Amino acid sequence: MRRRVLAIAILAAALFLGAEAQAVQQGHQTERISGSAGDVLEDNPVGRLKVYVYDLPSKYNKKLLKKDPRCLNHMFAAEIFMHRFLLSSAVRTFNPEEADWFYTPVYTTCDLTPSGLPLPFKSPRMMRSAIELIATNWPYWNRSEGADHFFVTPHDFGACFHYQEEKAIGRGILPLLQRATLVQTFGQKNHVCLKDGSITIPPFAPPQKMQAHLIPPDTPRSIFVYFRGLFYDTSNDPEGGYYARGARASVWENFKNNPLFDISTDHPPTYYEDMQRSVFCLCPLGWAPWSPRLVEAVVFGCIPVIIADDIVLPFADAIPWEEIGVFVAEEDVPKLDSILTSIPTDVILRKQRLLANPSMKQAMLFPQPAQAGDAFHQILNGLARKLPHGDNVFLKPGERVLNWTAGPPGDLKPW
């Protein structure tokens, strides 16, 4: 009985939390993010680096997209939009001799199943073929073995090119990419598939679609905890326990009947509106540590509750994740209710105020056309911060680091 009274009291408080937070936001519109985040988010990389974009045959990119336009809408579409952005960006140079970085536009996630899921089985051969092409026709790859080149590899386990973690780990990162910089969706610390020096980015979430579902900012946040998604993946994990390392199953088993938790496998048409009516949005790991849910939470001002041990978050040097989110260890999921209800109201209001900062939202999005401070510019900032290249980037005459025949036998077949 006492627990029920407590739940009702907290839920009643949440009804007014959105309006109170809005009032606070209106009084602090010019507040800068603490630490270096405000400076980094407002930084302009133009003038500090030049990028040369290889002109590859369309079979590596545009032809794939023409064959299946669904590639534009899935969460791995950052590789497509990054290519489009660079083609018209002020950092692009047509003179490779003055380039700081070289970009190879290969769409590795545009081989879709009938249900729209990308399978990266052809990706290693396609990437190897593209690298052989640029190494044959331009001198710049060979002088550094790709150390001044970057690639966008946004699939679940990046350049390991497999959708199952165990097999991805067994494959490892494509050997030819060992010296290159990878721009990939956020991963996991000390993971085989997260290369040192990678630039971690958010998955793609459609900005126009989210914009179309905005509701008045003073709408009360009447939902305390919100989540829509799978708790069990019975088709790929029939015995249970492996999917999300059991964290999602634990959420369901412990809180399916808790009045503070609005959780379900249903994905209603009001999904975006519901997030804007919620105080906390659960962002648990799935097969990989990340999903577009984190982007949606930030854009809609819902405090992300990140449940993914050792996650590497996007643009961690630009976004103060510790200040805007709540981190819960996977083993502590059964205590989620007590963890969230114990957070002081002033802390919640501060997190909401920081989330309301337009720069925070902008940094998570890939808008068309690009806008100042967006995810494109955060990627460029990451590349600019890696300059100037060190003495170890360019190889001595005759020196070779990478083995062109290294990798699983299937990767060596012609593409």
Automatic annotation (TrEMBL):
Which residue range or ranges hold the Exostosin GT47 domain?
A: 48-343
Q: Which UniProt keywords apply?
A: Glycosyltransferase, Golgi apparatus, Signal, Signal-anchor, Transferase, Transmembrane
Q: Which Pfam families match?
A: Exostosin_GT47 (PF03016)
Q: Where would one find the signal peptide in this protein?
A: 1-21
| InterPro entries reported in the protein's UniProt record | Exostosin, Exostosin_GT47
Q: How does it sit in the membrane?
A: Single-pass type II membrane protein
Q: Where in the cell is it found?
A: Golgi apparatus membrane
GO CC annotation = Golgi membrane
Q: Which GO terms describe its molecular function?
A: glycosyltransferase activity
Keyword match Transport? no
Q: Does the keyword Transmembrane apply?
A: yes
Q: What family, per the record? A: Belongs to the glycosyltransferase 47 family.
Instruction: Report the protein name in the record.
Output: Exostosin GT47 domain-containing protein
What species is given as this protein's source?
A: Urochloa decumbens
